[in-house]
Amino acid sequence: MKKSSNFPEPFYRWRPHPWHGLETGPEPPEKVHAFIEITPFDFVKYEVDKVTGYIFVDRPQRTSSLPPALYGFIPRTYCGEHVKSLSQGALRGDGDPLDICVISERPINRAEIILTVEVVGVIQLLDHEEADDKIIAILSKDNIYGQIRDIEELPPAIIERLTHYFHTYKMLPGQEQMIKILSVAGHEKAQKIVEAAMLDYQDNFGS
Questions:
Q1: Residue-wise burial string across 32-67, b where 16 or more C-beta atoms lie within 10 A, e elsewhere
Q2: Of the candidates 123, 93, 102, 101, the residue with the CA atom closest to the CA atom of residue 185
Q3: 80 in a structural domain
Q4: DSSP 8-state class, residue 23
Q5: Distance between alpha carbon 25 and the CA centroid of its chain, in Å?
Q6: Cα angle at 92 between 186 and 53, to 5 degrees?
Q7: Contacts of 156 (CB under 8 A, 6+ apart)
Q8: Nearest-CA neighbor of 205 among 76, 33, 86, 96?
Q9: Smallest Cα–Cα separation from 119: which of 131, 103, 130?
C-alpha cells in the first residue's frame, strides 16, 4: 500500500527557478516578493542566470561604489512594451525582470533570499535608451521603516544614495555616460510599473 505524502501544500520537490517559479507576492502591486541577488557588502555584481536560476558572477565592481540597499528583482515580472510605455524616451524595456531595492534597518549580509516588501517608490532611469526602472521597497515588518508607504517618508539621504549609485555605478573614466535618471516617483507610479511588468511577463511567458 502506497504511503500518503506528509509534505505541506504547496511543496516544491525541486528548487524553483527564482524568476519563473516563485510567486510575485502576496498582494501585488503593493506587497511583493523580492529575490535578492546582491547586498551592500558585495564588491561583485551577482545575477541570476536566466536559464538555470543559479547565481553567477556578472562582473567584479570596477569602482569603489557599493549598492546602498539590498538589490534584486520581483519574480514573474518582465520589462517589455508595457514598462516601456511608462518610461519617457525609452526605445524598449531592458528584457529583464523588474529590479527592486529593499530598505531595511537591520543589515542583511546574505543574498539568494526571498523578502516580502512594501512598494513605496521608483527611480526611473534609462540605460542605453532602455527602460531600467528601480523599484524602491521597504522590508515588511521592519521595526524602523515598516510603517512607510511612500518614498517621500524616507530620509532624503537614502534617496540621494540610491540615485547617486545608479547614476554612477557603470561610469568609467573616459567613457560616455549612458545612464539617464528620468525621475524619482512615489508609490502610485511604482505600483503602475509593477503591474506593467506583470503584464509584460504574461505576454512573454504566459500566466
A1: bbbbbbbbbebeebbebeeeebeeeeeeebeeebeb
A2: 123
A3: yes
A4: -
A5: 13
A6: 85
A7: none
A8: 76
A9: 103
Q: Which three cell numbers stand for residue 154?
A: 524616507
Residue 83 confidence (pLDDT): 98
Question: Domain range for residue 117?
Answer: 31-205
pTM: 0.93
Q: How far is CA 202 from the centre of its chain?
A: 18
Residue labelled with grid coordinates 526611473: 124
Residues in the chain with pLDDT values less than 50: none
In angstroms, rounded to a whole number, what is the distance separating the alpha carbons of residues 32 and 11?
A: 20
- Say if residues 99 and 162 touch (Cβ distance below 8 Å): no
Rounded Cα gap, residues 171 and 125, in angstroms? 14
Sorted by sequence, the CB contacts under 8 Å of residue 31 that are 6+ apart come out as 25, 116, 117, 118, 119, 140
| Size of the chain in residues | 207
Rounded CA gap, 145 and 137, in Å?
10
3 state SS of 190: helix
pLDDT at 4 (0 to 100):
57
Q: Is residue 182 part of a domain?
A: yes
Q: What is the pLDDT of residue 5?
A: 63
User: Which CATH number characterizes residue 70's domain?
Assistant: 3.90.80.10
